[in-house]
Known about the structure:
Helix content is 43%, strand content 21%. It has a 15-stranded mixed sheet that branches. It has a 4-stranded antiparallel sheet with strand order 14-15-19-17, with no helix packed on it. It has a two-stranded antiparallel ribbon with strand order 8-9. α12 packs antiparallel against α19 (598-613). By secondary structure, the protein is α+β, with helices and mostly antiparallel strands. α4 (170-189) links the parallel β3 and β4 (198-204).
Amino acid sequence: xxxxxxxxxxxxxxxxxxxxxxxxxxxxxxxxxxxxxxxxxxxxxxxxxxxxxxxxxxxxxxxxxxxxxxxxxxxxxxxxxxxxxxxxxxxxxxxxxxxxxxxxxxxxxxxxxxxxxxxxxxxxxxxxxxxxxxxxxxxxxxxxxxxxxxxxxxxxxxxxxxxxxxxxxxxxxxxxxxxxxxxxxxxxxxxxxxxxxxxxxxxxxxxxxxxxxxxxxxxxxxxxxxxxxxxxxxxxxxxxxxxxxxxxxxxxxxxxxxxxxxxxxxxxxxxxxxxxxxxxxxxxxxxxxxxxxxxxxxxxxxxxxxxxxxxxxxxxxxxxxxxxxxxxxxxxxxxxxxxxxxxxxxxxxxxxxxxxxxxxxxxxxxxxxxxxxxxxxxxxxxxxxxxxxxxxxxxxxxxxxxxxxxxxxxxxxxxxxxxxxxxxxxxxxxxxxxxxxxxxxxxxxxxxxxxxxxxxxxxxxxxxxxxxxxxxxxxxxxxxxxxxxxxxxxxxxxxxxxxxxxxxxxxxxxxxxxxxxxxxxxxxxxxxxxxxxxxxxxxxxxxxxxxxxxxxxxxxxxxxxxxxxxxxxxxxxxxxxxxxxxxxxxxxxxxxxxxxxxxxxxxxxxxxxxxxxxxxxxxxxxxxxxxxxxxxxxxxxxxxxxxxxxxxxxxxxxxxxxxxxxxxxxxxxxxxxxxxxxxxxxxxxxxxxxxxxxxxxxxxxxxxxxxxxxxxxxxxxxxxxxxxxxxxxxxxxxxxxxxxxxxxxxxxxxxxxxxxxxxxxxxxxxxxxxxxxxxxxxxxxxxxxxxxxxxxxxxxxxxxxxxxxxxxxxxxxxxxxxxxxxxxxxxxxxxxxxxxxxxxxxxxxxxxxxxxxxxxxxxxxxxxxxxxxxxxxxxxxxxxxxxxxxxxxxxxxxxxxxx
Length: 899
């Protein structure tokens, strides 16, 4: 294999096949390996307590299946609160028994059930939203050594008890709740464990209502001020190891390096911090209101189940709970030990200038300063290696051509993949055909990216492969150094690739040098022999010179081993990056809206990461000359055509990878009209046809569905605001029994009124309290247009006439909330036309009937029109689509009032 042209393309690929297949397999095996689940709570040999996955899943199953859908405001939400409160006091009693049995042990367990009301601003997706919550709760456990000093600096471990509207929430977030309970049990029962610094376990009971529980703790609990760092536990999937996707200080990154199974990269950290994912967690509240650093970790594999009915314990992969528990436990042990950084964090923290990543299960951490030095040295060494190469391949014109080839190869891959995306989406109408598998886009867009890259090489060929390898090295080494000096920690990926290429070329250089020295020695011996044999003098001299000349001819060529060595690190790194990225982004396309360019996003991800993973493709195709390159282009074209034909016949969704359908049965309290509102959050084909089928089966005779514009004045979907911006809605008229009269006795009416209403004509203001009465109705929202001067929601309302949305979340049984405000009055003459021409403030309001959500309230259906419709609709949809659609069905009431 050390020969330069011993084998053709097929033989060379066969020789490299073990590496091309084996290294990605090794990378994936390390990346997704999970520990063996532990069943027993105590080790049978040592009798010491141990973290038990079986116990964790038992808690998760009780919360998600025995109690069920724990949406804030529901009866089930209140049941979960009562269960967790009881569990916390049981753990406290267990702690006290253990301490009594071990005299002198410094361990104290404290429990609080916090209840409170408040408000906060929650901006998301370029939308301004205000939250108002009433009587919501948290359950808190603190373990400390019992001293004031030991309680001074604490680490907060957070998870949330509640689940969102369409999901029982086994993974999100009952799994994390179980992990925390199990950590408390093991810590308490570990002989001799005494925390130097306190650990606070916050079981917050309102995350899905937009982080009200974490806001309540951060702004109102007396021990919140002792928190120095946060570890937030979340889930957006049901499989694989939990990913560290936010780390906000060097100290906490160092703490994470102590976990037994690290899985996190600065690449994920920087993507999440950029806001590209339009996602958020409780970490936001702790960071903003407590000004603390921390770690944000979540299970992200198989996120097809995220916020779906399928978020059940049976769908949580074995080992997931064990993995999260062991890593969390290790963090707690370190952060409560004498070596903890918590006291240093009491005076604040700086944003991390730290590069970190997991490579084959090993966690690497180094500073930006170290990175700048390393990457600069590599770039300098690369320049020296290339400059000292000599020969025709090192000439300026050849190197410039090689650099263009490398750049055009990458651009060609991007264009090729997106060209196929255009064909699938716009021409064939088969967008998102890859949705059912996180790695299926590699099959569709990988060949397209390869074809595009090869096509760009045709007008440039031939180019010496060594020159191309040198160009690749210089490009990646430069990107690593330049990116790092610009503060982009993810530049480490270019550094890793450049190190691999540099090592391969250096070894090739040494090998060639040794080969040339051997050839020269042979020539000298021949020259000495000719002194004794005059008649062979010329022949001997020529032979010697020819052997030296053959070594020089190799200037533009490299050994096949160079590719094997040069591709090793890119294959390993690229496989890990590609898999981690696709696992997040492919399922995400099912909930980012029909207007999002999902097809092009996925095609671009495959092209960019594929080009990185197989970064030596360009020099390799030039190794065999122009005829081989043409054949490769032709073959890749054929492969692209076949793959497109296969994917064009695929169904987008199935039972394990479902489409999300949002269904509202809405009754208008002003007109008594009832409508069915249908919306999707993806751009997959077939939605319009499904809506027309639904209309034909459930709608009023002869009335077609109406496509509705989604904007801030579309109040039909305000219960899901601001996520509603992702939806593509239709409105369907429902047949209504003329004898129907909504059962709304006066004491149960949903009303919005103005109380303590006063006008100041001199100041041009109106001061009032908006009072919202919502018996039996949850997640109420009011929306209105006004120039607010002052209100109880925050201290900085917009200094202009604007649309305002205020969302409520209250504990079960709480039916009233208020907002005090002062507005400019009368409104300006150029007010929005939808809010003008009325003698007062026009307020739109909507809410979800607590007993009319399907399937959450399936077992206690009240016989209402909405629930009867949902039962029939759900069965019809399942039969029609083969279970490939998961519908969220909510019974809502809405109205409009001028106050």
